[in-house]
Automatic annotation (TrEMBL):
Residues 4-214 form the Alanine racemase N-terminal domain. This is Pyridoxal phosphate homeostasis protein. Pyridoxal 5'-phosphate (PLP)-binding protein, which is involved in PLP homeostasis. Belongs to the pyridoxal phosphate-binding protein YggS/PROSC family. GO terms for molecular function: pyridoxal phosphate binding. It comes from Fuscovulum blasticum DSM 2131. The modification N6-(pyridoxal phosphate)lysine is found at residue 31. The keyword Ubl conjugation does not apply. Keywords: Pyridoxal phosphate.
Length: 219
């Protein structure tokens, strides 16, 4: 199936970049995919999944988690502050921390629960007005704020502009992580995950290349 091919391409890109085999985590992005496709990928052994919508994920993952031990869920879509509580109960990692109000909410939840998902700061590397993420010039200060709140910061995440070469955006994110002492880099999707690995990605988020085209659903 496509999963095996994507895993093979990741291993090849790791080797080409002089990276250790297995140093890149594949997040299989299962948002709005039919259940039979997700079940097939679970059956093939994939355990790390990405979802964009809290409600959709809360509806479908508890049953699969019972059936397939070891599932890790990553939140990769924009997170509304009023859904943060459901999100921290459901997800092992949140890739889309991008504003102080959300950070403060996550810090309060971490304090009351005694634990927090791993967090990534989403950076709007292309400074696109319609896109989520902190602007590059505000990122260093925001990272310091998160550290001041005692939150577990795993790294940075970006979604490059659709009409541009992704590589300069990946390189910018990698440089930003390095100067802030962060090791996690969530970057690369179906069309550009190999380029992301060449620039140091530790987490690639691949959806349609594994599951096929997303079936549009009314929301
Ligand atoms: C949907 C989505 C992906 C996966 O996109 P594909 O092009 O299908 O691989 C990755 N990251 C984010 C943030 C997404 O929303």
């Amino acid at each position: 199936m496509a999963l095996a091919e994507i895993v093979a391409r990741i291993r090849k890109a790791e080797a080409a970049a002089g990276r250790a085999p297995g140093s890149v985590t594949l997040i299989a992005v299962s948002k709005v995919q039919p259940a039979d496709r997700v079940a097939a990928v679970l059956g093939a052994g994939q355990r790390v999944f990405g979802e964009n919508y809290v409600q959709e994920a809360a509806g479908k993952w508890p049953a699969w988690r019972d059936q397939f031990p070891g599932v890790k869920l990553h939140m990769i879509g924009p997170l509304q502050t009023n859904k943060a509580k459901v999100a921290v109960d459901l997800f092992d990692a949140i890739h889309t921390v991008d504003r102080p109000s959300l950070a403060e909410k996550l810090a309060r939840l971490a304090e009351s629960r005694g634990t927090s998902p791993e967090l990534f700061v989403q950076v709007n590397t292309g400074a696109e007005p319609q896109k989520a993420g902190i602007l590059p010039e505000d990122a260093d200060a925001f990272i310091a704020t998160l550290r001041g709140l005692g939150l577990p910061l795993a790294g940075l995440m970006c979604i490059p502009p659709e009409d541009q070469d992704s590589t300069p955006h990946f390189a910018l994110l990698a440089a930003m992580a390095e100067r802030n002492g962060l090791t996690g880099l969530s970057m690369g999707m179906s069309a550009d995950f190999e380029a992301a690995i060449a620039q140091g990605a530790t987490h690639v988020r691949v959806g349609s290349a594994i599951f096929g085209d997303r079936v549009p659903q009314p929301r």
